[in-house]
Amino acid sequence: MSPMFTQHFVTIFTVSRTSSENKTFKMGKIALTSATGKLGSAVLNAILENNLIDPSDLIVQTSSPLTSSKLQSLRAQNLTLRHADFDNPPSLSSAYAGCTSLFLVSSPRIAMDYHTSTLWHGREKHHRAAIDAALAVGVQHIYYTSLAFANPSKASVMRAHERTETYLKDLEARGRCSVTIVREGLYSESWPLYFGYYFGLGAERRSEVVVAGDGRVSWTAIADMGFATAKVLSEPGGKWKGKTFYLSQTRTWSLRDVARMVSRVRGEEVVLKIVSRKAYEDFYICEQNMEKPSVEWWSSTYDALGDGECAIEDDTLEAILQEAGRKPTTLDETIQDMWK
């Protein structure tokens, strides 16, 4: 599977402040998980590069050893580090102590979802551990990064998100906390995963790519999502309280469009071959020697694409970018950059 799913977790906190729009709501200490991951690091970079939150007001937590070389850039910015591990709930409680808000990036441990459909045994187990630990130490508001599929969805990748969204909305309904659910767009940089595990533009030699379906997708660059998410976190919390929205651009591309773009950058035709889910699974398991649980879990994604679940009409991201004088990065631009 894509390395985008294998990053470590980091949490950032900001000092409490009172919303000018809602005097009863405090933004406070935001748990920004996965700040060394793709989305999380994009959010952190956007915060720092655009001076959205003072670095002295940030506390960063990581599941890695605090002396790890991968944290050097964070240490160089004089950010305070704390250790936290989803598999060790007490560590989460210690890390969240004194916080009033949590920004929770979904767990990358997708293998937890492969073998079971039982509630609280998939990735939602990690999400609940973080949420419960946060509430236990007085967190009042939770921002959760869901995914840009429908809810309910045909895609197995959305199952843990659906369950986490349900849990959060129930907590909100019972007055335990306020909630903001951000359905982050499908990364433009992740197109190879959807395009038949097509990793390494320079190394690939396939002239035919096998997939189990096609549909329009609002591919969105990680940097654009990172900036928009950072803006959401830095604005008065009352503005986003109780809301569920997408951060995706509204322009869409299909996998056939991807095939044309890849053909153009490679200078040779790459054909998209659409087969049944069973044929897709057999091809990648038997002929490409990929892990069966992973392929079977992933294949349902194409049912969701075919139903148009990932063609997003929410213009929230584009409005945030426009306000900053920016435009969404196109998929063509992303593929060109990856080729370079």
Automatic annotation (TrEMBL):
<dbReference type="InterPro" id="IPR008030">
    <property type="entry name" value="NmrA-like"/>
</dbReference>
<dbReference type="InterPro" id="IPR052718">
    <property type="entry name" value="NmrA-type_oxidoreductase"/>
</dbReference>
<protein>
    <recommendedName>
        <fullName>NmrA-like domain-containing protein</fullName>
    </recommendedName>
</protein>
<dbReference type="InterPro" id="IPR036291">
    <property type="entry name" value="NAD(P)-bd_dom_sf"/>
</dbReference>
<feature type="domain" description="NmrA-like">
    <location>
        <begin position="28"/>
        <end position="290"/>
    </location>
</feature>
<dbReference type="Pfam" id="PF05368">
    <property type="entry name" value="NmrA"/>
</dbReference>
